[in-house]
Structure formats: C-alpha cells, structure tokens
Amino acid sequence: MLELDGLTVEYGDLTAVDDVSLAVAEGELCCLLGPSGSGKSTVLRAISGFETPAAGRVRIGGVDVTEAPPNERDCSLVFQDWALFPRQTVAENVAFGLKMDGVGAAEREARAREMLELVEMEGYGDAYPEQLSGGQKQRVALARSLVVDPDLLLLDEPLSNLDRRLRETMQLELNEIHDRVGTTMLYVTHDQDEAFTLGDRLGVMESGRLVQHDTPEAVYDD
Ligand code: ADP
Ligand code: ADP
User: Fold this and answer.
1) Which residues contact residue 183 at a Cβ distance below 8 angstroms, ignoring those fewer than 6 apart?
2) 51 lines ligand 2 (CB under 6 A)
3) Where does the record place the ABC transporter domain (predicted)?
C-alpha cells in the first residue's frame, strides 16, 4: 500500500531523512519508532506531500505520488494535537472531509453517525469540542480522519498529550478500530511500549536513517 524508496529530505545542510526505504502492506499497522529529532514526522510530511524530497520516491497504492500535491494523495494525516474545529459540533467536525468531497447532507449525516458509533461516541453529535475530554476529542478526530476512507492513515504521536491511563485505553481502542476497518496505518511514536503494543511491524529510526524494520518480536530480540 505504501512504498518509500530511498526517501531523503534535507533542510539546508541537515539531512533529516536519509535514504529511507520502507514498505507497508495493505491493512498493516506499522509503527515508526525513534527518539525526538530522528526524522519520523518529516517522513510523514513527505508522504502526505507537505515536504519535497531531495531524493527518492513515494508510492501510495502503487501510484507514484512523489510530485503530486497533498490533496491528490489518498492519505490522511492526523496531527499530535488532534485539532477539532471549535465552533463546529462533533458531527460537523466528523463530516468535514465529506463536505469537502461534495457528499450531500443526508449521507454526510448518516456516515458521521456511523463513524461516531465506531469510536463509541454516539450521542455526542450535537456537542461542541470544548465539552469533551481529551480522550473523547481524540476519538472524534480519529472518526474525522476515517470517515473519508483513506487508503492510508498517517498518525503523528496521536496519544502523546494524554495521561498514561487514557493513553493505554486509547491504544486498545485504536487496535480494535484497526482490526475492524482494516485501514493501512503508519503510526509515529517515540514511546517504545506503545510501538510494541500497537505495531504489526516496527520501523526504528535513528538520526534520519531507518536502522531496523521487522516484526515487534524480531526487533525486541535485537
Ligand atoms: P521527529 O519527528 O523524529 O521528532 P523531525 O522529523 O521532526 O523528527 O525532525 C528531524 C530533524 O529535522 C530534526 O533535527 C529537526 O530539528 C529537523 N527539522 C524538522 N523540521 C524542520 C524544518 N521545517 N526546518 C528545519 N529543520 C527541521
Ligand atoms: P515533532 O515533535 O512531531 O517531531 P517538532 O515539535 O519537532 O515536531 O516540530 C514541530 C514543527 O516545527 C514541525 O512543523 C517542524 O517542521 C518544525 N521544526 C522542527 N524543527 C525545526 C527546526 N530546526 N527549524 C525549523 N522548524 C522546525
């Protein structure tokens, strides 16, 4: 589903991502693990088209999108802070991507409701983001990114702002959601436990390089 082939991203003299090759199979949840500054977010930005690589190719679903603008890539990026639109209801937030795609009001409403059920937030459609807890906001944001049915979901430290207990709950929920919808996911984290809990496969980054890419068991044995 996703192929990176020799991906290299430079900021002036700094090589933030150095010759990274990585394949993520359809339906797989791959965790990209590494310390802060190792280039994980830059990889996600290059995949979603917000960063132009100095070298290498990006393919999504077999299509070379290296030169394509962000809106022409079949992927959806979820940011750290899960920013919801504060003046829109939960249902409107979730339906946002569908509106952009020109989907009619009745279908938007039906699909938003379906997504809210998936993340166990049914009944909150008319609430506003400020009325929700951190974990609830994250579930709404997850629903908002899943509703457009992206081929590939990119998540950048989505749980890092939560306390430990909520983070563990959300990890389990994310795993269940992934099992149910089967969306291919690339999940960036600096938290080793989280990566081992979530990932079908693990990519380990160090100073811009991918130094390991294997199953959690094999990475653990090293
Ligand atoms: P990570 O996500 O693993 O924390 P990043 O991809 O954010 O790492 O950053 C990798 C390296 O690139 C770091 O040294 C960071 O300071 C640098 N970097 C990231 N974004 C920029 C930018 N827009 N301009 C200059 N340097 C950047
Ligand atoms: P993350 O924690 O996801 O790695 P950071 O907090 O490192 O993100 O960076 C947040 C934003 O700041 C990003 O958009 C990144 O491009 C930018 N950034 C990071 N490092 C630098 C840098 N050295 N110079 C300029 N921009 C940077």
Assistant:
1) 27, 146, 149, 150, 151, 152, 153
2) no
3) 2-222
